[in-house]
């Protein structure tokens, strides 16, 4: 649904050139929620603005639902943008318009008649749970309600793609969860493809099917969450299940076991201890529900050297678990 290929974008400042995006490529499948995560200044906002050409790339192509936006003339681009809704961090509502008036704005701009605007705006306000606030003004709403209006406005023209630019970063944790649940609901009910950018790993955990890590304008890692979890050395997977610093091994072997799907409910540790007569210490664990199933990482200390633990480590790997040795006897 979204294809970004070899996109670069530079900005000039004080005689120097800064790469906001540097040869960025990613693919978002129809109907999935795709998260792009990175710290401030990593290039996230430039990327999402490049996808609807609010920022035109210096090079590369952007294709949405079969339309190569970077090749369209202004009229063609305006038409193609009707397939794309966008939700902003700071809501960007018009203070002088009611909730319903804000939702109708985009429809008004593209020439939808009054009766149809009213019908569609009430339909979408019902979907986001705000039809009872249709006559209220933005100043009368909470932050979460304002963002629901922003989402309704983005959905009013029935787009195929929803872009979310840090839509939850200005909200408290409980409101963030409710907005993310709403995004998931509309993703399922409307078959909407969603690309969101965030600096919060909890957002990726809660709703994303796939994710990409962006640093210094480059995509350094990307893929479906279930694949990343089972990828050795994946930084995104480690950030999904943080265990803190690895302690000294003190003459033992420290391993981290990553599990997901069918491996999540097995009594792996107790079976291993019985089978090999090991006194296993659990040094840490992080478990999350991702994509409707449990996944996580457990850090274990096995007595003895890596060589002495070759058999139990092999056993774990043969069970389909990702096993990484993170500490060993010197």
TrEMBL record:
InterPro entries: AAA+_ATPase (IPR003593), ABC_transporter-like_ATP-bd (IPR003439), ABC_transporter-like_CS (IPR017871), ACT-like_dom_sf (IPR045865), MetN_ABC (IPR041701), MetN_ABC_transporter-like (IPR050086), NIL_domain (IPR018449), P-loop_NTPase (IPR027417). SUPFAM superfamilies: ACT-like, P-loop containing nucleoside triphosphate hydrolases. One of its GO terms (molecular function) is ATP binding. Keywords: Amino-acid transport, ATP-binding, Cell membrane, Membrane, Nucleotide-binding, Translocase, Transport. Residues 2-241 form the ABC transporter domain. The keyword Transmembrane does not apply. Gene3D superfamilies: 3.30.70.260, P-loop containing nucleotide triphosphate hydrolases. This is ATP-binding cassette domain-containing protein. Transmembrane segments: none annotated. Pfam families: ABC_tran, NIL. It comes from the Bacteria.
